[in-house]
Amino acid sequence: MTVLASPQPATAARSRASRHLLAPLSVAVLATLAVVALYEVAVRSTMGQRVDTLVMRGADVHHPRVVEVLERTLNGTTLVSLVLVCLFAAVFGALRRRLDLAVGAALLVIGANGTTQLLKTQLPRPDLDGTAMANSFPSGHTTAAASVAFAVILVLPQALRGMVALVGFGYVTVIAVATVWAEWHRPSDTLAALLVTLAWGAFAVFVIRLRTPVETRAASRVVSMPLLVFGAVAAAAGLLGLAAVALSEGAMPDLVSGRFAFLAGSAAITAAAAAAFLIWARMAAAYPVPTSAPAPPSVPDPMPAKK
Q1: Would you say 256 and 199 are in contact if contact means Cβ atoms under 8 Å apart?
Q2: Could you say which DSSP state residue 17 is in?
């Protein structure tokens, strides 16, 4: 007697493969839409520009240790250092015989930084806050730092990604806050840079999964828990703080100080960086599916043929 195999396992496998393929594409689309929404709120509205500029100009932090960290981080982020890290990512991916990861890392870095420079030079910035400042949306420094960190995480083995993700989160957060502290960028510029990088990173993962079927794993708790805690606390502080800043600008002048505005903006940047690295750690936590599986053991016929 011949027993027909149930099609359910094959159907479930196809459904799982579709989800793994469409998940990064969905993240890329949502991050792109978030960039558009952020531009409309922070650049094309009067209140958005006023709050953004107040946060940037409130960075009157003069603590010697804080100033030293911010200055060293900005000065250490040079084009040469970023190129060297990108070369490391490409070479390491090739050494692991994962050319798909090396190509994905290159696509991520080139796409994110190229998009940032294009937007910065082409997007108009109406003068709604009376400062007549040129457009700086998104931040090139933040994009460069985040894209390189994402690329390194992508090509490293699973065992090392967690530690590097936490280090990358800290480094990118300091870079983003430092550009606001130095009055090179507004907070919205750094948030847009994180979103642009996340969009290109998700698209690179989508391209990789088109070529290499993968199974995803949950991000390690060593990574997810600190990012969740930092992100939740910073998000609450940032949202409440920026709401107070907006209220001060709109109805109650001098309700908050410039330093309070800067700290609220820094909290919002920290929350955004934590969310970006948490999502990226989840997307990068994948391993290739074996192309060939061992043949199932043969099952004897329960009803021997009659002689």
Answers
A1: no
A2: H
Q: List all residues 6 or more positions away from 61 whose beta carbon is below 8 Å from its beta carbon.
A: 67, 181, 259, 262
Structure tokens at 296: 């199932």
- Cα distance between residue 154 and residue 186, in whole Å: 29
Rounded to an integer, what distance in angstroms lies between the CA atom of residue 231 and that of residue 240? 14
Phi, psi of 229 (to 5 degrees): -65, -50
The dihedral formed by the CA atoms of 203, 205, 208 and 212, expressed in degrees to the nearest 10: -140
Q: How far apart are CA 73 and CA 172, in angstroms?
A: 10
- Domain boundaries in the chain? 22-125+136-287
**What is the C-alpha to C-alpha distance for residues 152 and 102, in angstroms, rounded to an integer?**
10
Q: Are 301 and 223 in contact (CB under 8 A)?
A: no
Q: How many CB atoms lie within 10 A of CB 149?
A: 26
What does each of the 307 residues of the chain score in pLDDT, given as a tens digit? 444 444 455 555 455 556 777 889 999 999 999 999 999 999 999 999 999 998 988 876 665 565 566 666 666 666 666 777 777 777 777 777 778 888 888 899 989 999 999 999 999 999 888 888 889 999 988 998 999 899 989 888 877 888 889 999 999 999 999 889 888 889 999 999 999 999 999 999 998 888 766 555 656 677 888 899 999 999 999 999 999 888 887 777 777 788 889 999 999 999 999 999 999 988 887 655 544 444 444 445 455 555 4
Confidence (pTM): 0.83
CA distances (Å), 307 to each of 299, 301, 304, in order?
21, 15, 9
CB burial class (10 A; 0-12, 13-18, 19+) of residue 48? Answer: buried
